Amino acid sequence: MKYSRSDNEFLSILFAAFVLVASGCGGQNVNVQELLNRPIEATGHFHQSKKYIKHGMTVVYLTGTPYEIGFAHGKLCKDEIKDVNQYYWEAYGKLKNTPDGKWLLLSRSLERYIPQEYVLEMKGIADGSGIEYDKILFLNTLTTISKHTECFAFSFHQADSNIITARQIDIGTKKPLWKKMILYIIKPQKGYGFAAILNPGWVSGETGMNEKGITISENNIHVRQIEWDIMPITFLSRAALQYSNSIDDVHRFLREQKNYPSQLLFVSSKKSATIFEIANGEMARINMQEGYLAMANHACIIPSKNITSPSTKRLDFGNQFLEKNWGDLDIKKAIELVRTSRISWRWNPVVHNRQSIIFSPATLDFWIAIPAESDYIPASYGPYVGFNLLQELYGTGHEPNPESFPAY
């Protein structure tokens, strides 16, 4: 029997619904208060860097020179780097034994555009973990060579005029990336200290907030890469996160680049938010104007032939929700939005929400959803546990307020 496209979509939704019912459609059964009350568990230490478990999250604090930060990263997260990225190590092995393994050649050619401090950090990761450098380089250029995520982000003004920013990361259920992300707290010798929620082994600002309240997130734009004299997106976002005191600082940094990896950068500060559309030789900037700003995985200004219906429907839905609830927007409303079917993608058995993070740039508080074990329950359904960046960087400041938000 042959099925039409609409039949297949119906069967996909039916399958997803069955899985949600079978596994429980809410977040995982976690006593959030008990999780918050657990003492911090130290699990590793190397010079001034350390690894610990707090609120159910693995946290790695790194400080020192670029090489020292990388070496401690590799030393403390050796097992996670090897385990989480096994799929990519296998791909690397196959490409290495292929005469025309173009991805490896491209990865090596991109190294010349990477700032030297991040090359040193990658060499430190390689030496600390015992993994060859070319593999670490390959891992850190993959998101530039091959796009593979679907994401959603938005910011809005609260009643006190401060910004709240929400970040959703979605990926295919069969891919290991983002399933076991680590909260990295990094205090470099130069630039600002920051928090970044990353896959182990990455040198990136893929999702993070610095101590000046600047948040950065990378998002797929679905524009084909044709220029390759570019800084890979992981390092571009990392530099923007590490060295920016304002959204205009990010803009100035981007203007210094000759060409761009094809991505959307969603950037927020204490009082505003901006989308930077970057692709090949083009850049466009979209500023918050109506008290809220949202993006999905397509360009709105840079010409693109890859705008897909799910992406436009997702953005339209998000904007309609934000407009309808304008005046009552707060973190609870943000969580309500990210738990809707259109934003969490709970209807999709192939791709759905793997991570959900909420930032408060004014207070430097942030909340990370604890994902369920099931691949078919969105991370946003889980409880959100809070952290404060100054607490993690310096042991100063306040505890996050509130400490948590309950599961769905």
Could you explain how this protein is built, in words?
With 408 residues, the chain is of the alpha+beta class. It has a domain at 148-181 and 212-405: Penicillin V Acylase, Chain A (4-Layer Sandwich). 35% of the residues lie in helices and 26% in strands. The chain is built from 14 helices and 17 strands. The chain has helices spanning 5-23, 32-37, 66-76, 78-84, 86-96, 102-110, 116-129, 133-145, 233-243, 247-255, 309-324, 331-338, 341-344, 389-394, and strands spanning 41-46, 49-54, 57-64, 150-157, 163-172, 182-188, 194-198, 207-210, 215-219, 260-268, 273-280, 282-287, 292-295, 351-360, 365-369, 384-388, 404-405. The strands form 2 sheets. A 10-stranded mixed β-sheet has the order 1-2-3-6-7-8-9-10-11-12. A 7-stranded antiparallel β-sheet has the order 13-4-5-14-15-16-17. Helix 7 crosses helix 8 (133-145). The longest helix has 19 residues, at 5-23. The radius of gyration is 20 Å and the shape is globular.
